[in-house]
Amino acid sequence: MPDIPWSTPTQAAPDAEVYVMASRFETATLPGAFKFFLKAPGIIGQIRKAPGAHGVALRARVFSRTFLTLSAWEDRDALYRFARSEPHRSSSRAASAYMRESAFTFWTVPASELPISWAEAERRLAEQKQSY
User: Fold this and answer.
1) Radius of gyration (Cα) for the chain, nearest Å?
2) Is the pTM of this model over 0.85?
3) For the chain, what is the mean pLDDT?
């Protein structure tokens, strides 16, 4: 299945610090993976319109039931406002019914380091998993 490549909804100031989130979702079943994948473009579209969003990408491995997301935000509050807004809020709650595992990690970087590489996101998610 195709990935959704990094896009930059709003360019951050070159000297700004941005708040980055990487997430990893694994569904319990293949039908759950297809549900997740079918919802993903709408959520990506929502991020692209969200105030304070500076970047977003999705790595979809539907047949492995695994999805990685990357997003960059003006600050933590911008991310949290998005997470509480519709349709993301309802989609997240519905997805919990078919999720096996989820992991999240957060950090800040200079805006000049965007976009974040998948290798960096995966490294940070692996470190997060080892810490609990």
Assistant:
1) 14
2) yes
3) 93
Sheet with strand 66-73: strands edge to edge:
4-7, 53-61, 66-73, 17-27, 99-110
Q: Which residues contact 5 (CB under 8 A, 6 or more apart)?
A: 57
> Residue 28 and residue 13: Cα distance in Å, rounded?
40
Check: CB of residue 57 under 8 Å from CB of residue 4: yes
Retrieve residue 104's tokens.
């999240």
Residue range 69-88, pLDDT digits in tens: 999 999 999 999 999 999 89
